[in-house]
Every structure is written in structure tokens, then in C-alpha cells.
Automatic annotation (TrEMBL):
Keywords in alphabetical order: Nucleus
One GO MF term: DNA-binding transcription factor activity
InterPro entries: Fun_TF
GO biological process terms, semicolon-separated: positive regulation of transcription by RNA polymerase II
Keyword flag Chaperone: no
GO CC annotation terms, alphabetical: nucleus
Organism superkingdom: Eukaryota
Signal peptide range: none
Record's protein name: Acriflavine sensitivity control protein acr-2
Locations listed in the record: Nucleus
Pfam family membership, one: Fungal_trans_2
Amino acid sequence: MPQLQAQPLEMRPILSTLPEMFQERSKLSGLWQSVAVGDRYGESWETNRRYIRRHNEDPKGTYDLDSTSAMALYLVHAEPSSFATSFIDRPACARSRLSIEEISGLLDLVLYDIPRHNPFRELIPMAYQQPMLLQTIIASSALHMSNACQRSPRSSSILTTMASTQNRTSLVSSLSIGPCMTSRPETYHDALRAKQQALCLLKSALEDIASADVDVILAVVLLLVGFELIDSGRGNWIFHIHGARIIIEKLIAFTLATETALSPLRSWLVSNCLVYDLLGSSFANSYLPHSGWPSTTTMSLLQDAEGNHCSSFPAALLPLIQTGAQLLKSNEISTSPDTSTDLEQQKAFHLLHAAKSFDPAAWAINLQPRSPADDLLHRTEIASAHKAAVCVYLSRIILTLWPGTVLLDDLEMLAAEIIAHLSNMRPGDALFTATAWPAFIAGLETVDLANRDWVVRRFQELWEMEPWGLTREALGALETIWDGRKNEDAVKSSNDRLHKHEEDWNWIQKLHRMGTDWLIA
């Protein structure tokens, strides 16, 4: 999820007659409209609404007016404006990814949006001919704009130290106050409308899957997962992942049976879906059965995603999360007496040992040929943070299933270790936005107020860089866990003192009791 730098837009004279610029108009209302524009024009006017666009291949507008290549379908922002108003003077919340080339939903899903390293850009020409893909892109971008409008101006006022006040304002509220929400609710409505249209079109495509474009379907499903991350990171994403899993299993089976290779785009789409699938299992309450330990083909696909997936999650650690979650869920849904406790406990400790044996430095070195940038040091730090976070996660599963277990590791120290590694990534670094999952684990585990303050600041900084709803919801979940832990600490009942550390304070159980499927990425 890389930070996008604002790009200057050259303003060019407006011709008096522009009939050819509005050959096609979508039915979308509000800020987002599809129009056919001539690349020669920098801006155009109709009914006092401004359409601003830029084309990557022709930034100066050198195409001939009559050239067919100069006509393309673009996603643009319609802004009521006076004739003299310049682009620079427009409100900050109105400056978004103005053309389809700049749609944030495609760009925030990767660490590095640079030429030949972001396969999501291949979806752009596909969207011109695929309405459901276009509607999904519109939905994600409009929702991204809606969230961006809610961001408060950057100031230290929202970076409040938790210990500084007893009756502090909700941390979530500090991430949801902004000047544009009341004036631009139409962006959110546009997002919901476009999402609904995309879902209807997707349903129709799935009813005739034999003639459908599988790549388009996978792209739509993946972007719908992205939509849910931008929205809240909880709930509906799990249904998209479940649908993607069915398609992917059939694709992999077909590939193995026919000994054919996946195309680069399909491989990228599949690998990204798989990352979200395994990563989502860590905090999903809904039980969706998996087919066991990932196959060699699946592991290869997960490794393909390591280089530029927004999470930068080492592929070797993802199956450990999934298998640990399976142990937890199988215990929760079991209705018969457990006859394999010892075997399951051995399996859990085997997972923990595998996590401890992971070598972040070796992983980072091996990744460099597949990384779009020279980022060895930051990759080592992020992998070290993920390693420690997975160890904490698996340890908490063990303590949930076998409360009397004595662990060798101090989990509070592991939480501090996570924070120490993540502190080396700062806003503006490409891997900064890959810190959400381990930061969330550190926040769940730590009782140290200074460390909690750090986690709060990290999620607030993530929100400022990328206004994804999962950031806001993750901080809200942490606030709930912390408040509950504080209240339980005040309880002096002798009946629950014995297992307070192992059981009552186990955040695995607390998250489960919330009854929400979380996806933190």
C-alpha cells in the first residue's frame, strides 16, 4: 500500500467547442462519471462542471484531435467550479486519483507502483471493456475518496498520549473527524452504488462461468476484498475470499492436470487472493474449511506475491498462521470429547518452533531479486517483526487451548521486539504500510502504556498515509481490548486470579467474543 505523491497537472487552454469530448456518459451520479475525452484537452466544461484528466502516454496532449487513439474511457472527477478556478486551488479532499490510471484501489494493493512491477495496471485497459471491473474500480476509488475526506488536518492534536487523560475521547473518533464528510456524502453513496452494480454483474458472470473471463472475475473479487479493507476490514471480505478459493482450487487443479502455466496476470491475481486468504484466517471467527497445508504450487504462488504485495508477509509464515487458526477453530466447533489433545499440542508447538526457526535475514536476501527496489534492510526488519508477531499469535493459541502451558518466551518482550523492528519504518518508506498486522499483534499483547502509545501513533500515521477503514477499525478493536483488560484487572475475585494471565487476558478469546471476521493487512 504505497504512498502516492501528488502529481502536478499542466493546465491548457480550453477550446470553445468541445462536443467530441462527451460522446459517452455513464449513469453514475455524484462526483464520478465516465466520459470519452480527447487527450488533447487538459480540461473541459459542461454545465459548469469541470472534468480534469491526464494520460500517462500523452501528458502534453500531442495526439491529433481526429486520432482514434486519442479517444479513451476515463474516470474523472466532476467538480462544480467557476471558470477561473485552477486545479491547484481546488479543495484537498477533491484531489484524488483523477483518471483511471491513478485509481487508488489498484495502487494501494502493492508496495511499489513502478513500471513493470504492478500487474494491477494491466486491469486498466480491461476495465474499458468489462463493466463489472470498471464498477469495482469506481467503487474502491470513490470509497477511498470518501475516507480521505474524513481525515483530519495533520496535527499533533490527534496524536494524544493515552496516559495523559483518564476520560479521553475515543481513539476511533480521532480518525474519523474531517471537514469534508458532511459536504461530500455523495462520494460514499457513489461507492455503494458502484459496488452494488459490480456485485450484480459478478453474479451474472458466475451464473455463466464457462463463457466468463476468469481473470476479470478474479480481479473483481480481489478488488472487492480491497473495497472491504478500505471500508472497515471486517465482515464481508470473507465471502469474497471463499468464492475466490473455489475458483483458485479449480484453476490450480486444471493447471496441474494440463501441465500449463498461469499467465503472469493470473498468477499475480491468484497469489494475492491466497495471501489475503491465509492472512485473514488469523482473525476470522467464521469457520471456512481449508484443504490442509498449502501445496507446493500454492507455496510457489505465495512466494510470487512476496516481492510487491502490500503486506510483505513472508510466505513461509503464512501457513503457520492458517494451521494455528485451524487448531483453534476445530477445538471450538468440536462436539465430541477430544481424544487427540497431546497430538494437537505437539502440532501447535511444532508450528511455534517453525516460526522461531524462520531466518528474516536470509529471507530478505533471497527476496532481493524479486523485489522492485533495493530494500534489504527494511525487508529484514519487516520480516523480523512478522516473525515475532507470528510467535506471539501461536503462543496465544496454545494458551487458549491449553491454559496451564508454561511458555519459554516472555510475550511482553516479544511485543516490544515487534515495535523495535517496526520503528525503523517511517511514513514515506515503501514498507511503512506493511506494518499493520504485526503492529496490531503488538498492540493486542502489550500492557506497557508507552508501547500502546506507539501503536496508537502508528495506526494514526497509517490512516494519514492511506485512509483505509481497517486502520480505524483495528484501533477501535485495540481500544476495546485495552479497556476490557483494564476493567478485568480491577476485579478482585479469588476465583479467577489463578488463570487471569493465561485465560482472562487472552486477546484471542476477546476477539472471538466480538464475533467479527477481521482482515488486517
